[in-house]
């Protein structure tokens, strides 16, 4: 089970000088390599992991991804809050407003809604952990693109934190993969 | 920065350290230095949360206490409405 903690993992400071950035941030909120994909991916894969270590790690990283998803939502919510419709339209958010007003709907930067087709759970721990390693790198790359797209120091700061977490998660998944490979190799009898 | 945000920031920093050590220990469960660091951070975090909740109300539902007549959990600002400085 989960219990909500009434705080963000990292502060979100938005200076409201980059409304259009809300549209781009959707990439990490509801896109293929988003925090939502990451959370659902790991929390789905954990059931069929062979070791307690991997079950624990996927549970803990999956949980942290939900906290990151909340950070992205907060950034988007703050960027568009109270902004007049005409300004939203000029910033490229007219289509979003037509369908969702200022709601933080899980879609990617181009408006395509989030889908479970973005993730995989094969039941094979080696395969799943390789997918997870790739997912962390794809998310890191996306954060680097997003950091280049804004000059808002508050948004940049939060994005740098999130980017760094991808690097740490990649490291931990690599260790879990090595551990499982070692165990599976020990069991081979020829 | 107002006092509430200062205390919240301290909790965020301590909890970040706890999560980081948590993940490290998931793949290094016998690393003694990390175990020692985790318990040191954990003790500071529990104390910081206790002090914060006493003044500003619960961070988790188990932080609710009967000292007011009203249900304290729903009192804002919720995390996405806080103006961070």
Provide the number of structural domains of chain A: 1
CATH topology of chain A: Ferritin
Arithmetic mean of pLDDT of chain B: 95
The main pleated sheet of chain A reads as: none
Measured distance between first and last alpha carbons of chain A: 42 Å
List low-confidence stretches of chain B. Answer: none
Radius of gyration of chain A, taken over Cα atoms and rounded to an integer in Å: 18 Å
Oligomer: heterodimer
* Percent strand of chain A: under 5%
Number of strands of chain A: 0
Amount of helix of chain A: 55-70%
Largest sheet of chain B: none
CATH class descriptor of chain A: Mainly Alpha
Element-by-element helix/strand order of chain B:
HH
The pair of chains with the biggest contact is: A-B, 28 and 26 residues
Mean pLDDT of chain A: 96
The DSSP helix count of chain B reads: 2
Description:
The complex is a heterodimer of chains A (190) and B (85). By secondary structure, chain A is an all-alpha fold. Chain A has one domain (21-111, 122-186): Ferritin, core subunit, four-helix bundle (Ferritin, Up-down Bundle), CATH 1.20.1260.10. Chain A contains 7 helices and no strands. In chain A, α2 runs antiparallel to α6 (125-149). The longest helix of chain A is centred in the last third of the chain and has 34 residues, at 153-186. Chain A is elongated, with a radius of gyration of 18 Å. Chain B is mostly helical. Chain B has one domain (3-81). Helix content of chain B is 59%, strand content 0%. Chain B has helices at residues 3-27, 32-56. In chain B, α1 packs antiparallel against α2. The longest helix of chain B has 25 residues, at 3-27. Chain B is elongated, with a radius of gyration of 15 Å. The mean pLDDT of chain B is 95. At the A-B interface, α3 and α7 of A face α1 of B.
């Amino acid at each position: 089970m989960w219990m909500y903690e009434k705080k963000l993992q990292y502060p979100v400071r938005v200076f409201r000088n980059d409304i259009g950035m809300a549209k781009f941030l959707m990439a990490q909120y509801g896109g293929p390599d988003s925090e939502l994909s990451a959370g659902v991916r790991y929390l789905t894969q954990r059931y069929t992991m062979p070791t307690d270590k991997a079950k624990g790690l996927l549970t803990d990283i999956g949980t942290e991804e939900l906290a990151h998803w909340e950070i992205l939502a907060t950034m988007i919510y703050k960027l568009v809050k109270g902004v007049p419709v005409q300004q939203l339209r000029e910033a490229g958010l007219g289509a979003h407003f037509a369908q969702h007003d200022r709601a933080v709907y899980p879609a990617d930067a181009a408006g395509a809604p989030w889908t479970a087709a973005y993730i995989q759970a094969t039941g094979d721990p080696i395969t799943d952990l390789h997918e997870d390693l790739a997912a962390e790198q794809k998310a890191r790359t996306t954060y680097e693109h997003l950091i280049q797209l804004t000059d808002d120091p508050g948004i940049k700061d939060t994005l740098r934190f999130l980017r760094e977490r991808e690097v740490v998660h990649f490291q931990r998944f690599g260790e879990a993969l090595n551990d499982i490979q070692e165990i599976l190799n020990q069991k081979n009898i020829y | 920065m107002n006092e509430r945000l200062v205390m919240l920031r301290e909790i965020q920093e301590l909890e970040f350290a706890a999560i980081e050590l948590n993940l490290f220990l998931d793949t290094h469960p016998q690393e003694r230095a990390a175990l020692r660091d985790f318990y040191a951070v954990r003790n500071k975090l529990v104390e910081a949360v206790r002090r914060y909740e006493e003044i500003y109300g619960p961070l988790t539902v188990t932080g609710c206490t009967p000292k007011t007549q009203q249900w304290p959990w729903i009192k804002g600002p919720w995390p996405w409405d806080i103006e961070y400085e």
